[in-house]
Amino acid sequence: MGSLFRSAEMTLCQLFLQSEAAYACVSELGELGLVQFRDLNPDVNVFQRKFVNEVRRCDEMERKLRYLEKEIKKDGIPMLDTGENPEAPQPREMIDLEATFEKLENELREVNQNAEALKRNFLELTELKQILRKTQVFFDEMADPSREEEQVTLLGEEGLRAGGQALKLG
């Protein structure tokens, strides 16, 4: 790995590459880490540049990877870090990677939404269970031990007509 410190000796070069070979050449040079690129068209708007769509796609894939990494770390799942940067994928592999990242992100978002829904349902059901326990304690205290078959309904008479059940206390 080279060094880009000011004291390191550098040489200014200009490369002319064919469009078909540009990706492979730039990725190889980038993996060596010995090159610094200089913008020869500083007046050109960012959105008017030739490879702006590819850069946007890469930014979007990077965002998805950061999201996946954040969720993995949040759940305490160990990740293997080799400390090395992987090789730049070929353009045809980028399409597969993009689809895979999209699928993983969607699945993870769905899992998170389902987990939240399950937590909400659990809390609601726990609350209802506690209400029923407190209500049962109330009716147990109110029940007269001299009466053997007293019916108390939690829903009232309307609830019985609608199909509710009566509690028999005693």
Automatic annotation (TrEMBL):
Positions in coiled-coil regions: 51-135
Main location: membrane
Transmembrane segments: none
Subcellular location: Membrane
Membrane topology: Multi-pass membrane protein
One GO term (biological process): proton transmembrane transport
Domain of life assignment: Eukaryota
Keywords noted in UniProt: Coiled coil, Hydrogen ion transport, Ion transport, Membrane, Transmembrane, Transmembrane helix, Transport
Pfam families (UniProt xref): V_ATPase_I
GO cellular component terms given for this protein: membrane
Function: Essential component of the vacuolar proton pump (V-ATPase), a multimeric enzyme that catalyzes the translocation of protons across the membranes. Required for assembly and activity of the V-ATPase.
Family according to the record: Belongs to the V-ATPase 116 kDa subunit family.
Name assigned to this protein: V-type proton ATPase subunit a
Organism: Cryptolaemus montrouzieri
